[in-house]
């Protein structure tokens, strides 16, 4: 039996309040993790506000957790994790482990519905729990103060690179240089790809180049977009606003793929001939499975890929959430536990 101290939303859109809850007995496959840091993601805001119509309250958000193993369930005790070990937990806390998707290693697409960490009561707390396979061991060479956003924002942009077999010869465009896009650029640089950043903010150009972009294009300049026709093997969209997508479709090379991880609420208008002419594709993906998360954390540690973060004490969580809501974060906000 464990009492967990958290910051919870009691209603949609409400400020977070201190809330204690009884976690019950540790399930056999569970790991209890002591939280050291937890990033803030726009998905946390969407859940707090019930933007997607799936929230229940009190809601404890937070799914970019860096912490230490505090306790192991009886079945989790022989899975390689040790009490005190540094670990991370991302978007997913549980999956069924027996459906076709789980058995094939696609636990993120669990046919019975993988459970988001937020719905499981997340990391805006002193502790949280998750199934052992979703508790990701961290390499020694990773910066624990900034690593949290890799577990959601990072894996979200890493997954398309794996799905599209990106190599050092790939020509990749990234739309939107915010919380997701700035990590994508660093990952692509570390993989040796040719990287073009599409940004609506020209003031970011020098900073974006320092992150690893070979070229920065003003996404509000129609002529600049038109000049890129047929150049990209892959374009990753990280923004959630609706844009004129046609110039980006036309910027794909033959066999190229437009891949969205940004949750654009309006349908993408894709003329059939845009795809047929050049064997182009449009796709999307969620986050990653446990193996992909482990791969990312090892790669990020070795390649020194680290999100650019601003740190707040968790006791100032409402100030931090407002900072993110107002679009002022450069580029991710991380909370440091101070219970």
From TrEMBL:
It comes from Pluralibacter gergoviae (Enterobacter gergoviae). This is alcohol dehydrogenase (NADP(+)). InterPro entries: ADH-like_C (IPR013149), ADH-like_N (IPR013154), ADH_Zn_CS (IPR002328), CAD-like (IPR047109), D-isomer_DH_CS1 (IPR029752), ER (IPR020843), GroES-like_sf (IPR011032), NAD(P)-bd_dom_sf (IPR036291). PROSITE patterns: ADH_ZINC, D_2_HYDROXYACID_DH_1. It comes from the Bacteria. Residues 13-335 form the Enoyl reductase (ER) domain. SUPFAM superfamilies: GroES-like, NAD(P)-binding Rossmann-fold domains. PANTHER family: ALDEHYDE REDUCTASE. One of its GO terms (molecular function) is alcohol dehydrogenase (NADP+) activity. The keyword Oxidoreductase applies. Belongs to the zinc-containing alcohol dehydrogenase family. CDD domains: CAD1 (cd05283). The keyword Zinc applies. It holds the Pfam family ADH_N. Gene3D superfamilies: Medium-chain alcohol dehydrogenases, catalytic domain, NAD(P)-binding Rossmann-like Domain. Its EC number is 1.1.1.2. Coiled coil: none annotated.
